[in-house]
Amino acid sequence: MPIVGAAILPHGFPVIPHLSEDAEGALKTRNAMEKAGEALRKLHPEVVIIATPHGFRVQDHIALSYAARGAGTLFWQGKSLEMNIPLEGPFAARLAEAGKAKGLPLALVGFAGNRWDQSSLPLDWGVITPAWFLGHNRHLPGRGHVLAPVPEGPEGPPVLVVTPSRTLPWETLIDFGRLLAREAAADPRPMVFVASCDWAHTHREDGPYGYHPKGPEVDGKVAKAVAEHRLEDLLDLSPRDLEEAAVDGFWQVLVLMGILREVPMEGELLSYEAPSYYGMMVARYWPKT
Ligand SMILES: [Fe+2]
Predict the structure, then answer these.
(1) Using one digit for the tens of pLDDT, what is the confidence trace for 238-259?
(2) What is the pLDDT of residue 236?
């Protein structure tokens, strides 16, 4: 079935209500996350594909989770959140096979048990933050690490984690998005795609990356391109722009661009703000009828 929906979601984890009451000033983003999450959940996805710049990374490759479980713990100002969720295995294997035939550098990643269905991978904010809004809003004390026993009770849809390497040519990541869309269409299950992205990290002098004028400038271009539904305008950004703005969302959006070339969708920018040193944007996409 063709991909049924997509989103660009941030991963600044204080937006998760369990970790911070006031989202550290990002309540507009939290509200938009809730709205986008609800829209995607209503599509009843049976697989959620999350592309993240964090987590396990394989240089010069697009890393795909190949494990049955993912688990991790986030800490924020005395609070913690433990997540333990199902991951998707068979679709990852089919993608890797199809990628090999196309000459795309895909790497299946596992940990601990040697079989995919005995394997469990660590998760961080890049996956936990969007997953919380996509049917995985359970804090599971004692289960937030890869070797924890599998929790009981109803669970949200399995997640496929995709981590693109920034060393790859941009066109390779777009080609991967096209392959992802085609392979999803050949699978009977409805799937959604999420680009887990924060934008410029140089909005504030007192932030860890300092201030750079390219930060607000690049984020303005990204928000405009998304709002006007001209995502491919972002291909005009240069590697230097991305570096000076310290963007981490661009490579996941290249994958989304590839998907949109195969599955034309309508889009809506729900929010953009930079309440601290980095920019967060929420946008949702649904197939054109
Ligand atoms: Fe990030």
Answers:
(1) 999 999 999 999 999 999 999 9
(2) 98
From ligand 1's centre to the CA of 103, what distance in Å? 28
**CA distance linking residue 200 with residue 220, whole number of Å:** 10
- Tokens representing residue 173 in the block: 């990541």
Q: How many angstroms is it from 230 CA to the middle of ligand 1?
A: 23
The amino acid present at 164, given as its one-letter code, is P
Q: What is the 3-state secondary structure (H, E, C) of 210-267?
A: CECCHHHHHHHHHHHHHHCCCHHHHHHCCHHHHHHHCCCCHHHHHHHHHHHHHCCEEE
Can you read off the two tokens belonging to residue 229?
A: 């539904």
Q: Residue 70: name the closest of 89, 53, 57 by CA.
A: 89
The residues pairing with 106 across neighbouring beta strands, listed in sequence order, are 62
Distance 155 CA to ligand 1 centre (A): 26
Distance CA 26, CA 15 (A): 7
CA of 188 to the centre of ligand 1 (A): 32
Question: What is the rounded distance in angstroms from the CA atom of residue 70 to the CA atom of residue 128?
Answer: 10
The whole-model pTM stands at 0.98
Let me know: does 180 contact 193? Beta carbons within 8 Å: yes
198 CA distance to ligand 1 middle (Å): 5
Question: In this structure, what DSSP letter does residue 119 have?
Answer: B
Summarised one tens digit per residue, pLDDT across range 113-157 is 999 999 999 999 999 999 999 999 999 999 999 999 999 999 999
Rounded CA-CA distance 223/189 in Å is 31
Residues in the chain: 289
Query: Which CATH class, in words, describes the domain spanning 5-287?
Result: alpha beta
Q: How do the domains of the chain map onto residue ranges? A: 5-287
pLDDT at 32 over 90: yes
- For residue 48 the two structure tokens come to 């959620």
> Which residues fall within 8 angstroms of residue 133, CB to CB, at 6 or more apart?
9, 33, 34, 36, 37
